[in-house]
């Protein structure tokens, strides 16, 4: 059984020599070709191959060097880890407003477009959400979970959308109370539209979920909000794994909700 030291050494070796492992996954190569392909000195390649072979990650034979099964498994997982780190760092300005206990997984960030209100175009996040909502055609539908309206045009967008495609929205009880107090007529108008179905829930996360289905495919958006209800940013994705998580999370929220009664 591997010791903690051996595991730590293997982790450091994969991180340090991932380029060599990746190069040797496809075919067996002589060391001179490794030198040419990676641009390293002969001594650096010899040292790297010795380290990798001693760890069981590369097979060093007279006919050439090749990544072993174990080496390939570790290289694949390390590349996936680097991609995940990249996704998180790219989205950090949107995610930083979420509480520590937020249930948003790294899967939801995969290959996503990240839009923040910072910089010279503060309305870009609103445009990104509207682009997602405009995606469905006549055969599509939109599902939304929303704890807070960062966009003052939220109800207006919902009314317009419900007149075009089936729209389902799960509101939090807190948001329903706010709308009841301040925008009762607008909500009543929305509820009268045949294409709209409303629900309310006592729980739910602090981010908004949007799932827009169309004949050409599905697109999802995650909108974050600060504690004082300002916009944190938007994450837009059509990645299959991210969408599967969004579909599952929305279904969980929806299952814990109840129909929105007339205000």
From TrEMBL:
Protein name: Helix-turn-helix transcriptional regulator
Keyword Zinc-finger found: no
Residues annotated as domain HTH gntR-type: 4-73
Keyword list, A-Z: DNA-binding, Transcription, Transcription regulation
Record GO terms (molecular function): DNA binding
SUPFAM superfamilies according to UniProt: Winged helix' DNA-binding domain
Any one Pfam family match given in the protein's UniProt record, by short name: FilR1_middle
């Amino acid at each position: 059984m591997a010791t903690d030291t051996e595991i730590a050494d293997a982790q450091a070796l994969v991180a340090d020599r991932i380029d060599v492992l990746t190069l040797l996954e496809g075919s067996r190569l002589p060391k001179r070709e490794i030198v040419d392909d990676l641009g390293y000195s002969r001594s650096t390649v010899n040292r790297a191959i010795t380290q990798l072979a001693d760890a069981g990650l590369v097979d060093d034979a007279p006919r050439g060097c090749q990544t072993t099964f174990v080496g390939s498994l570790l290289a694949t997982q390390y590349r996936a880890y680097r991609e995940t780190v990249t996704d998180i760092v790219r989205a950090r300005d949107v995610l930083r407003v979420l509480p520590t206990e937020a249930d948003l997984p790294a899967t939801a960030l995969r290959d996503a477009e990240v839009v923040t209100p910072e910089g010279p175009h503060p309305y870009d996040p609103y445009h990104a959400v509207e682009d997602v909502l405009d995606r469905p055609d006549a055969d599509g539908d939109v599902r939304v979970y929303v704890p807070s309206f960062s966009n003052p045009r939220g109800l207006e967008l919902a009314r317009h959308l419900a007149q075009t495609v089936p729209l389902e929205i799960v509101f939090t009880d807190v948001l329903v109370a706010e709308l009841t107090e301040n925008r009762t007529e607008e909500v009543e108008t929305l509820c009268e539209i045949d294409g709209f179905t409303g629900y309310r829930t006592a729980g739910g996360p602090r981010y908004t979920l949007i799932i827009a289905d169309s004949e050409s495919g599905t697109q999802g958006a995650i909108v974050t909000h600060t504690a004082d209800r300002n916009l944190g940013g938007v994450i837009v994705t059509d990645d299959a794994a991210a969408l599967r998580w969004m579909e599952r999370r929305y279904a969980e929220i929806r299952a814990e909700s109840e129909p929105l009664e007339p205000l």
